[in-house]
Amino acid sequence: MVIEVIERQTRKWQMVVDVDKCTGCQACVIACQVENNVALNSDEIFRQRRATEWIRIERYWEGEFPNVKARFLPVLCQQCGNAPCEPVCPVFATYHNDQGLNVQVYNRCVGTRYCQNNCPYHVRFFNFWEPVWPESLRNHLNPDVTVRSRGVMEKCTFCVQRIRRGELDADREGRQLKDGDIQPACAQACPTDALVFGDISDSNSRVSGFAENKRKFHLREELGTDTNVIYLAKVDAEAKDRSHA
Amino acid sequence: MRKVNPIILIAISVVGFGGLLIAGVAVFFLFNAWFGLPVGAQAPDQPIDFPHTVHSGSIENGGLGLDCTFCHRNVAEGAAATVPSVQQCMFCHKQITGTSDKAKIEISKLTELSEAGQPVNWKRVHRLPDHVEFVHDAHIRYFSEMNGISASEVCSTCHGDVASMVKVKQVRALKMGDCVDCHRKYSAPTDCTICHR
Amino acid sequence: MTITRRNFLKWSGIGALGTVVFAGCGIPEEELLVQSPATMPEDMVTGLEAWYATSCAQCNNGEGIIVRIIEGRAIKIEGNPDHPVSKGKTSVRSQAGLQVLYNPDRLTGPMKRTGNRGLGEFEPITWDEALAEVLPKLTGTKSVAMITDPVSGSLGRVIKEFVDRNGTRHMALESMEQTVLTRTVRDMFGQEVMPVFDISNADYVLNFGADFLSTWLSPVQYSRAYGEFRQGHGHRGTLVHIEPRMSMTAANADKWHYVTPGTEGLVALSIAYVLVKDFAQDIDQETLSLMTGGGGVSALASYAPESTVDATGLTPEVIENIAHELTKSEHSLVIGGGAAAAHINGLFNMRAIYSLNLLLGNIGKKGGIRFNPEPADFGIDKRDAVATFQDWKTLRDDLSSGKTDTLLIHGANPAYTLESINFTDGAKNAKTIISFSSFLDESSALADIILPDHTYLESWGDHDPDPGPGYQTVTFQQPVVFPFNQDVGRGTRSFGDVLLDLDSKLGNSPSYSNMKEAVRARATKLYDQNRGSVQSGNFEAFWISVLQRGGWWDEKSSGPNEGPTKPITSAEMAAEYDVPNTTAEYPFHLIPFESNSITDGRGANQPWLQAAPDPLSTATWETWVEINAKKADELGIKEGDEVEIASSTGFINALAYPNPASSPEVLSVPTGLGHKHYGNFEIGPDMFRSLVGKGRGSNVMAIINPVQDKDTGALAWSDTKVNIKKTGKWIRLPKFEGVVPPQYEEGLFPIVKPEH
Q1: CA angle centred on B13, ends B9 and B14, rounded to 5°
Q2: What ipTM was reported for this prediction?
């Protein structure tokens, strides 16, 4: 068992988002909501601007008709190595774990929303209401994921339940985890394969292959958040010359 | 001595008592939360009096000496310990209908449920809150490998000597402190995501 | 009694106020119950997941999916990693399939109409009663029509047998009709099935209106290909999109060109002219002589870019550039569909567009158009029974006049889809309407008897993906959960089973007694062939294996390498089409588009799909209208203004969404909302619950001009002209944009230039 502890610590999960492949199709958005028991976003919730989407597709307009472009940018919790949300939590409900995940512990959270306020990526969502599902829709709730109650912050977990399940399954079968065994719901759904997830400490993993990519950038790199989500820039022949943000 | 308006005296005492009551309630909650008895400690009455002594008690003590895993089949294979299905009970109880009157009555309850295709609504003895996931097989694997014992011998670490219980009750608090103490003792991971997700 | 830390803090806070609340301290009763199941399959381990392979009915191309089952409940849908169409990937629609299965609005058993037709008042009856009611209505009637969605595979075969035997007319309803495309493929390439558009291997894709990343034909397949096209093989492909609206595919293109609606064919011919004039050595001479009748470039002279610019709005430089790039690229591909085909000159447009592929010699080539083989044995092409808009008009008239008096409806919602021709008015005259819908929708509300079908996750079937992946593929569909509404006198029954049951009760002897048998019969055929992805020494092993893998495919069974190629002729080019133009009264082109999530409306009862933001507007839950931002300013329209969009046939209300990407001449509106019955349940926090589908938004298909393509009779859904005016009401548009501040200001988004 001691061996297992060491193994855990050597893993570091990262995600690569190839913006050039993203079509904005929303498959990841819904896959995430299905997997993680995210409360249903009703029309009024959208109108109040309190919709919860752990992963979202941001769309930017560039220019005006007829020379107009739409840009898509998937944004999820960046699992910062140096996370601004962590030090502000008065009850240690959010912390950094040994696999590089920024963890939100729902049963510790008291809902101060300080972390939401401090997150530069706006990927933390607050449960303003008790989540309700019509009785029969409760059947599809994922038993691996806690249903968050009112007054609790929530955010993307890199599908930690899948990571744990993957680790347990490997343990159960007495084998090593291999690249691709664990995939968060968004990456598994993504029809263009724009999202790639894996262990960066494994030099043969697919994510490691992107480490030297020329298109690589981080969101709001200037903040020094040391994010674990790596973006690969959109390619466009008509791109204006402009420096990195 | 200055005369104090009795109304003020009454008011002060009411407020004082009230305050005391509130403080008392607060202390009660606090104690309950940290030291309260777990759900199953009272050994609830079950819809069918199922004596673990008869099924898994040792043969010397008049039991059958069945392995825990004989009925809780998947406990070493998956996260959940699993309560056996009625169908599984009936594998044996088609033949075994009881010797004592008491046993006959209890077994007939089972037979009736089986014929009606109904489940048994057991009262829960060990309960963890929704936001906790306990994985039985990982624990069993660890202890049985470490100590070189069979899966069924591991159960008593947390559940106590169930084989000697006529009515099952919870013996350990099974609160977070309990879990974490043990995880520290055996240098198992104590990351929150191990149990909470 | 235990309390959690959270609750403790909450209660101590309340206690300080002097009100001690004891209620809620305890553990909820259901948590103190642990139920032992009555019976338990041997292979089921509590708490362990099982994955079953089946087929997705939400996308309509037989995509293979796998469903995660925990203790008999479906928890998650993922793409089947083995399946050649999905390869482990899914669309937003397949993801939401669980909300079909567990929809609160599902009918729990057969229903009989009590109120007037169309009011949606029903009483529950048993299956025995229902079948006893239905049978006399099917015997001795004059004329029966069966309306379904396009069906393939065994269900298609069962339906075909039923209709052939009983003299029933079978009509499949496609809301965004592909008839023009089907006809183009048949006439030009001699193919009965859709070809493979090999996007992944192409270097340069010129696309006219086909929104293949969102809803067109086989979006999951094309999205996978698109990913490879972009960053798969080192060389990044270029996608140029020509469409009047900026669709999702247009938004992802390297260059999007606005074209006046209906003139896509002219653009294609202009490109052809430039190809012939400037790059004569690069083009297929035989095609050229067929096209021009031997006249050469002069036959195309009237399509010179300088002459078409006024009509199309595309400058000669753009046309020349496209023609140049097409010839320069080793693997070029031209695709057409969607709005380009939905005009009264649709067939002309499509023939002109696909002729470019012939001129460029893209047929049978890697990165071009490759042909699919015919469906494997016992297969049915789902487009065989598709009826054109003209057919639907005829059916409506037949219903009105009593020539057709009985309707069987399954998987389609004609009362909603065909609102533009008031199908409901015709249907109301029918003597009998029997619906097999799982839900109460606009069409089943008209029915006399509803015999509710299982959902696709509860029933047997198989499907022939069309377009296939380039080889014969059969997706198997098996029940992954027990029927949610179990059949104990009431409950739901599989449509195929009921149809076979009815058939035998009508005195016929159908080939199978139930759908499972029909599917097994298909499997037997495949087993006998002894080829493909699953082969086995005995049938039972084969059967288990195809179910496990979710299908059967034979990568060696490719389609023909070439077929008869018939490009557009000079006579066709010369034909006059009176494509309607905007007028002073109706100054805008109306471009309806299929919603990325709720498609033609069938997803409108699924909260996940309703709440999935539209990729471009990020709007949810409402019908919105996309209007050019400057134009909206001129008209004094701002976001959220309720506007009335009126065509010559009617009007709808929608919320305005001004944006910089719309052409000032175009209004575009998504399909799928405006249901009168569908999605009749509430969701949301207790303080503001709202209905999911019923009474929400408007149905844009209600105001389209009911005209059709001159040659095929297909609905020309892009040929409607409208005007817009404010109603004076303002309703906040529920959209995702603005829920969180954007990550990047405009212009700071890092974008790199391609490497050459």
Answers
A1: 115
A2: 0.94
